[in-house]
Amino acid sequence: MSMREWITHLIKLLFPPQVLxxxxxGIDIGLTVGAIAIMVYLTVRHxxxxxxxxxxxxxxxxxxxxxxLIAALVMLFRGGVDALMIRTQLIGPRAHFMGAQQYDEVFxxxxxxxxxxxxxxxxxxxxxxxxxxxxxxxxxxxxxLNAISFWIFAFGAILxxxxxxxxxxxxxxWMSYPPYSELAYNPGVGENYFLLSLQVAGIGTIATGxxxxxxxxxxxxxxxxxxxxxxxxxxALITSSLVLFAFPPLTVALGLTMLDRLFGASFFTVAHQGxxxxxxxxxxxxxxxxxxxLIMPAFGIFSEVVPVFSRKALxxxxxxxxxxxxxxxxxxxxxxxxxxxxxxxxxxxxxxxxSTMLIAIPxxxxxxxxxxxxxxxxIRLTVPMLWQLAFIPTFVVGGATGVMLAAVPADYQYHNxxxxxxxxxxxxxxxxxxxxxxxxxxxWPKMFGWKLNxxxxxxxxxxxxxxxxxxxxxxxxxxxxxxxxxxxxxxxGLGWTSLNWWSTMGSYLMAVGFLxxxxxxxxxxxxxxxxxxxxxxxxxxxxxxLPSPAPEYNFARIPHVRSRDEWWAMKREGxxxxxxxxxxxxxxxxxxRNSAMPIMLAAAFFVGSIGMVFSxxxxxxxxxxxxxxxxxxxxxxxxxxLTIDAAHVLKTEAAMGRVDS
Amino acid sequence: xxxxxxxxxxxxGLAVVGLSIAGCGSDYxxxxxxxxxxxxxxxxxxxxxxxxxxxxxxxxxxxxxxLLRFRDIPGNQAPYLPNWRHHRVLExxxxxxxxxxxxxxxxxxxxxxxxLDHVPSHHPxxxxxxxxxxxxxxxxxxxxxxxxxxxxxxxxRPVLFQLTANSPLTAxxxxxxxxxxxxxxxxxxxxxxxxxRHGVFLGRNSNFNGIDFWRMTFEAxxxxxxxxxxxxxxxxxxxxxxxxxxWRRLLHRxxxxxxxxxxxxxxxxxxxATQFTVKGLHYIPTREP
Lengths: 661, 289
Ligand code: HEM
Ligand SMILES: [Cu+2]
Hints:
The complex is a heterodimer. Chain A is an all-alpha fold.
């Protein structure tokens, strides 16, 4: 091939027609200008070194939590814009806001981004921000692995997100069922982006799972037996164990699809008797536990928020823990409910229908226990509590429609329809999103040291929740009217028009809510309301015994835990001085040293993935070698800890008034 | 006992169906069954809605009550019980409540799932369905005719659809007649439906398979036995048979207008690796080399 032909070929590969739509080019230009502006700012202000030292190479779980949070909010924005595009397209019959190809790309990106790059990192943000503090640990078990997890996730997210401007977006849906996702039906690199980005991000997720599993099991403060552990830590433990067993099947499913697409295998193809059903099974053996990976942290958050803002101990702690365990156990045995219509026969369908219904029992127990926790309490309508209060009546509807879907013959009529779409948005938005937003507002002062303005946050809440109901309730009825998911547009005359119009209006309300939230964050940063006490909500667990934000080493003195809700007990029993140090007892503290290896490793993964996406195998090999090199460097480098000497600790603590005289 | 319960369920079903028909227009295709399968599924939908509706209401009422009564406002007289963590009876009750609700939904679920798996006739009308990219091909092996994107069925006679695909996964759905079943390459799956009233019912593919997915619809015409035979005869005498060229044209990725053929090449609905046979009234999956 001549040089010229080669360049033409390259340009066609990188910029196929679907990435040259005017709106996409417009966004490309906007993003480029934005990136340049940020770089200029960093250069002019001499902030590159700061960025590198304080953030890019940090291994501090608190900072990693903040980075996860920022990434998740950016992805919420991206997925939200996709959602608005979808809803705008569906506002009326025969709409031409987008072509069908672009519509397919948008709903695929929306689902993938929201599940893997918004909800998951949001959960990990809160794990990182809160779990080590609430169990009295100085960091997670493997701080550098934690940074690796974050950077691998971040580069995975970047990989998926650049697809729309370079090479083309995936368009086979977030489940990406073969054979449609195979080369025969889905040429182009979009699907490769999907496979590689999830594969890479998945490695980070599994590592996070291992990390928090060990952290919660091994790093608790003395005296904190499992039965004295806050429920959020329990949920982190159980979620992590789910991650550990749920993600490998996904890895296999994605890997086999990749072999089909890149190396001509036929695991799931139509030709050569491939078995698409195998993918469907593997995907949902991952997929169903995954939805519980998303909801359990929300359950954990609410179990922290309700007692604090009801000024009352959690009702039925043992039942709460037991139901989390029961749900995690059951969630491995229900995956077939995602395809009752694939001919498994009545015996199998009935088994999985009933096992699915069983999940409603522990879930129901939890709902009532939260209500009983509020019963006899004193409910304060703070923003975290508002989200919780919106969650209960919303989530009960989502859980109830889940049971309706589990009634097998009824599901024959609901499956793939907007009824099912309404169900899972009802549980994911009304459960997970309400939950992580509650957690975000709850731990924000601890993460940043300043509080978010409550009045603005209440408005954001009101718009978002109202928008949620207006968006998703009509969709149940659309399902009963026979509207199926993923329709690029629909004809008039089927009775779908007005419900769709309402649903679109609701999504705009949610968008307004999100914008107010962003305004709320920026405004509160510019007019900070500093949290000087470290305990702005009158909290119950150990993180509130620390100043906000916590110092690098978290606890100058590791507390000795005697009861559940230890900080509450300390306050009641007048033992709050227990958290202070005295000048003669202060010890030097070891903290892990920053490392450039995680971001290098992730960058190597990124390079290798790009090579795989475009089948430039020399580049894939280069990336692979980079990964090996980074790992080798990481293993042999002198990864010593940094010692913060006693005098420095004393000074820091004294400045916060935490030294006993 | 059983008949009493059945009568109760029927009465309940009828009442709610009546209400929903009065309340919702015929656009609510799932709520307007035109045959026993959809009818049976609708009963379960109604029953489960009522049961979970009771639970939802209970939670909402409790929620509203707690929220009104236990607010942190000065002078609130409600009892304050900061250490109330356990109540044996309550904890058993909240466990029992979902259990009872689920038994009430679970039993009819099991019964109906098995019931719907039996074709209620030894002589159903058989239609072989193949989904191609963005069109449906219906072949009548006994009548030896084929249609594209529409089919006729006699009222009052069960129809056994044998579904396969020469395309990515699709799902065959005529909500008025009953729930859906996938059509998959390399497999044949059974689905029986029956119409008990005349009409033209819209069917569609419910599983995304590409850019013209949303246009992949078809019409199910339910007509009297007499009209059905007349229609079959008309096709047999007036339409040309499907040639291999016609078939290859159908395989193109495109949306096509409805069409009919008197006859079709045998290999258009070939034996699949995984089949099923109907033995008695049951579907029996079989594997062939
Ligand atoms: C009482 C609890 C629940 C039950 C009984 C239940 C039941 C079901 C069933 C039977 C389906 C399959 C419907 C179909 O495809 O025809 C389904 C779909 C789904 N559920 Fe649930 N569910 C429950 C809670 C949840 C929760 C807590 C989440 C996530 C936070 C969730 C997320 C989803 C998602 C994402 C799908 C659809 C995925 C897709 O096809 O794209 N569900 N649920
Ligand atoms: Cu599931």
